[in-house]
Amino acid sequence: MAKQVKTIGVLTSGGDAPGMNAAIRAVVRTAIQKGLNVKGIMRGYAGLLQEEIIDMNSRSVSDIIHRGGTILYTARSMEFVTPEGQKKGAEICSKHGINGLIVIGGDGSFRGAGKLAALGINTIGVPGTIDLDIACTDYSIGFDTAVNTAMEAIDKVRDTSTSHERCSIIEVMGRNAGYIALWCGIANGAEDILLPERYDGDEQQLINRIIDNRKRGKKHNIIINAEGIGHSTSMARRIEAATGVETRATILGYMQRGGMPTCKDRVYASIMGAKAAELLYEGKSNRIVAYKNGEYVDFDIQEALQMKKDIPEDQFEISKMLSR
Q1: Is 16 an annotated catalytic residue?
Q2: Active-site residue (options: 107, 131, 133, 265)
Q3: Is the Cβ–Cβ distance between 64 and 23 less than 8 Å?
Q4: Which residues face 96 on adjacent strands?
Q5: Does the predicted TM-score (pTM) go above 0.85?
Q6: What is the pLDDT along the chain (324 residues), one digit of tens a residue?
Q7: What is the distance between the alpha carbons of residues 152 and 313, in angstroms, rounded to a whole number?
Q8: What does the alpha-carbon distance between residue 292 and residue 105 come to, in Å, rounded to a whole number?
């Protein structure tokens, strides 16, 4: 090994995502196979600063691969955002003999990981967020489960929307990214998909399309609205007033973060967790594990955070063509 890493820590930070437990399991068991000691850090960076640190072994991660959420829990920490908090976090790692750390989370979590790496703690990030908004990777833990959960819920809303001949605005999660909305819009056959990356705020265009669809004999309309646009309830009121069509808003909310992870989320998360542990064993630091162009690779954290991500234009154009 380039640098002697004997004890590693693992934490989950930011929003929970289905598949995080699979990644934790892979980290622990891979590290143990490599002869490393493993400590679990509870409640993310907040738990690190409170020294909520436990020893982990292979049995610690038995029967968790199928569970949603994270057995290590997660929380946000304003203290860790400060240089003083970051220094304290590095000192606590050293106090507990942790000289390698795996952080499972999103962009904000990786910024913290980069700070710890600069303070001498070998740190590796694993992308865990349902939003799929991490630019360096084509996949992030939890997205597949979340989008399938949302798709199934939208199918159910469509049934009642059809029965009542309504327009339904269904709001999905994703923060300022429209990937869940785009995928659900295509998968659920929505008439309109509102994405933060593309929506120009032209509500009249939505209204005109609903009126035209009614004239053509269409009995219902499904509009998928991304969280980054929001205001679905007030939008529904305005559309109903303008069209005379009964319009209801459904906000799917946190149900999209829960539930048993799909096969894809279990397998990809397991491979990413194992890769992260291997990178620490090799003495690597300040890296993010990613899935890019069909391969598992790793990027420098700072380089990854500088990358920009956008909705694939061809997918967006296809979604519009199929909605007509």
Answers
A1: no
A2: 131
A3: no
A4: none
A5: yes
A6: 446 899 999 999 999 999 999 999 999 999 999 999 999 999 999 999 999 999 999 999 999 999 999 999 999 999 999 999 999 999 999 999 999 999 999 999 999 999 999 999 999 999 999 999 999 999 999 999 999 999 999 999 999 999 999 999 999 999 999 999 999 999 999 999 999 999 999 999 999 999 999 998 888 899 999 999 999 999 999 999 999 999 999 999 999 999 999 999 999 999 999 999 999 999 999 999 999 999 999 999 999 999 999 999 999 999 999 987
A7: 25
A8: 17
